[in-house]
């Protein structure tokens, strides 16, 4: 998982390794760490590290002398200078380095492995997710910060003007949304502002549930991203999610609207009173209905259909 993050974001994610041998639990942990350092001195730290973990079940419970032979055998398989490797291992040449890193780990309060310090907070046990989706989302959200805003845009729309949002998909297909500035002025104003800023360009429909909704508006594609500001609800009881093509805000609770929005794929009146309706698909609903079903946290989900651009027509 860590390697995948590094490979995906080589300019932003670095893996910094520190030894934390659990000597009270694993009698050979100290020498294994020293062996890895000895291999590292010959440019083979990660290859040796991977070999150690692949064979941990073999050497973990061996007597020290037998484990030593195993460590040397691994070095031989990696074509290392065995004379130098063995000398470094037997003379405990890298023991001080391992001990220093162990002391650093203890000073940070690490109770054991695995553990992660994230933005200054120590995560262990159930707090430490094994989900690649969550870690990937965290990185993407941090990168999104450079594009976010500190406050909603000033009101720039005319409530008497008709606004049509032309949504062009990467496939070349299009659909058109008539916006409702008279019912949801702040929401429509924000949508038009973000559209003109290119916020939605290249953004996918990250969550598509047949006979329910198709959701988009998050540049990270995770469902967690937003523009950096929130908008109040503008719920009008005269409007309803009573048919396919209704466009409304997606949020995490009352007054938490941002850049995400969805289109209903059927009548879903259970959403009435919860989300701000700010538009209706007036042409191209067939394009919306055939969007690829997916959920962003499914590792086997197909890629989401992508918006190429949106442009606003005023009448």
Straight-line N-to-C gap: 51 Å
> What is the 3D shape?
elongated
Task: Output the CATH homologous superfamily of the largest domain.
Answer: Cyclophilin-like
Question: What's the story with the biggest beta sheet?
Answer: 8 strands, antiparallel
* Rg on CA atoms, Å: 27 Å
Strand content: 15-25%
Low-confidence stretches: none
The CATH topology of the largest domain is given as: Cyclophilin
Quaternary state of this entry equals single chain
> What percent of the residues sit in helical stretches (DSSP H or I)?
25-40%
Continuous helix count: 10
Structural class: alpha+beta
> What is the string of SSEs from the N terminus onward?
HHHHHHHEEHEEHEEEEEHE
- The CATH C-level name of the largest domain is Mainly Beta
Number of domains: 2
Give the arrangement of secondary structure elements.
Elements: H1 2-8, H2 29-40, H3 45-54, H4 56-59, H5 64-77, H6 82-90, H7 95-107, E1 116-118, E2 121-123, H8 132-144, E3 163-169, E4 174-179, H9 185-196, E5 207-209, E6 213-216, E7 246-249, E8 261-264, E9 277-283, H10 285-289, E10 307-314
Antiparallel strand pairs: 1-2, 3-4, 3-10, 4-9, 5-6, 6-8, 7-8, 7-9
Helix pairs in contact: 2-3, 2-5, 2-6, 5-6
Question: Can you walk me through this structure?
Answer:
- This protein is of the alpha+beta class and 315 residues long.
- It folds into 2 domains: 2-128, Glutaredoxin (3-Layer(aba) Sandwich); 163-314, Beta Barrel (Cyclophilin).
- 31% of the residues lie in helices and 16% in strands.
- It is built from 10 helices and 10 strands.
- The strands form 2 sheets. An 8-stranded antiparallel β-sheet has the order 5-6-8-7-9-4-3-10. A two-stranded antiparallel sheet has the order 1-2.
